[in-house]
Amino acid sequence: MNNRLKLNDLNSLFTKYRKKNLKFKYPLLDDAFSNKDLFEAIKVIMSGQLTMSSKTFEFEKKFAAKIKSNYAVMVNSGSSANLLATFAACNPVRKNRFKIGDEAIIPALCWPTSLWPLVQAGLKPKFLDVDPLTLNVNASEVIKKINNKTKVILLIHVLGNSTEIDLIHKVAKKKKIIIIEDTCESLGALYNGKSLGTFGDFGTYSFYYSHQISSGEGGMVVCKTFDDYQLLLSMRAHGWSRNLKLQKNIEKHYPKLDKRFIFINSGFNLRPTDITASIGNSQFSRLDQFISIRKKNREKIIDSLKKSNKWKNQYEFLKINKKVSPSFFGFPIIISEKYKHLKKKLLTELDELGIESRPIISGNFLNQPAAKVYKFKQKAKSFPNSQIIEDRGFFIGLHTKPITNQKLNLLTNSLLSIDNLNKKS
Ligand SMILES: Cc1ncc(COP(=O)(O)O)c(C=O)c1O
Fold it and tell me: How many domains does the chain have?
């Protein structure tokens, strides 16, 4: 008898157990996992090999090949990817490394775990404002901000878009400044045909819920050099030498140590599981399809809003850098100046109408209580554009299946009901 598990045998179970989003008609992420994605995870569970193994290595190889990076190392989240990249960038084995007290340029519109690894590693963050319509830093302002103490530039490619990274890269290379590209919101986006995340020394990605692809939790770090690759592998897993090229050499030098437990550097445990790697890998095969559908859905939403007789420029949309071929997972919306006092009411109304929304990254990060704990000298008021994004911006999802007319109408009518809120106020 053939005991092999087949996807078809499980299809009815998938239907039975699939959770429908009961709260939202238009959630941030809609049913993005195929039965095949989940089947891949079930196969891993049934194999009993749950911890990091061949599924992770297979995904890493496929990822590196597709985005044309020399090396890719999977971790358990985008935050872990930032942590690993940052601590690799100051590791004593690295020739060009930053030291405690050096400075890092980072946008004020940032995610906490883009910032905190820098601070935890002893860097002084120097915040920079962003452009309110591209949501990204302006390259010439980054270059202007560089001084003798600048040793790291942490760029965030916000919601599928990017700044002129080639210009920043050119200057950074000359000055030996390390670039970490936080690409957690922009997997699959290209700048002049080259994948975002592959310009700098390290690029990081997230596979969290609602990102371009999702493995539940998960992330990836890419790098250019073999030495950095070996460093990332070791630091991802306790700092040990297992699976590294130098293992045999190390064994020879330390004959008294158990060769499976030789620790050659500092480290963390940031390993993913083969369960998440198998889901991520399965989703990754559909990345191009997701990018293309999301782009079309975005165009349809903008078109539908602008063609409505209720359209009065209530909103502004992301201005995409001409050199960027974008990859979206969310649809950022900036409420026009005239309507900005209605943001809270609008988001409550959207929530009641079944449309899930969230802030753009975490707004002007200097407003967050966590920023006060670290007593940064720069204050929130120095970043007026990040403040505009916090005060007037939010985003809704872009789904991986073509948007239906019903959902398009729901979004158009709900968003344009902002004028009624105006009358009510
Ligand atoms: C810019 C940015 N960096 C890092 C992260 C962290 O990724 P994760 O949620 O996978 O830890 C996020 C999360 O959404 C993010 O938006």
Answer: 2
Does 365 share its domain with 244?
A: no
Residue 64: phi and psi, rounded to 5, are -60, -40
Residue 292 forms part of a structural domain: yes
Annotated catalytic residue: which of 157, 169, 211, 399? 211
pTM for this prediction:
0.97
In this structure, the residue with its CA closest to atom 10 of ligand 1 is 78
10 occurs within a structural domain = no
Domain boundary, last residue among 284, 299, 320 = 284
Is residue 335 located within the same domain as residue 411? Answer: yes
Does residue 387 share a domain with residue 304? yes
Q: How far apart are CA 310 and CA 381, in angstroms?
A: 35
pLDDT tens profile 140-198: 999 999 999 999 999 999 999 999 999 999 999 999 999 999 999 999 999 999 999 99
Q: Is residue 241 part of a domain?
A: yes
Tens digits of residue pLDDT in 382-396: 999 999 999 999 999
111 Cβ below 6 A of ligand 1: yes
Which of 77, 119, 87, 128 is CA-nearest to residue 370? 119
Q: Which of 227, 260, 284 delimits the end of a domain?
A: 284
169 is annotated as an active-site residue: no
For ligand 1, what atom is nearest to the CA of residue 82?
Answer: 4
Cβ atoms < 10 Å from Cβ of 15: 9
Rounded Cα distance between 121 and 279, Å, is 32
Contacts for 365 with CB less than 8 Å, ≥ 6 apart: 108, 109, 110, 112, 115, 127, 371, 386
Q: Is residue 26 part of a domain?
A: no
CB-side neighbour CA atoms (13 Å) of 150: 22
Q: Do 296 and 246 fall into the same domain?
A: no
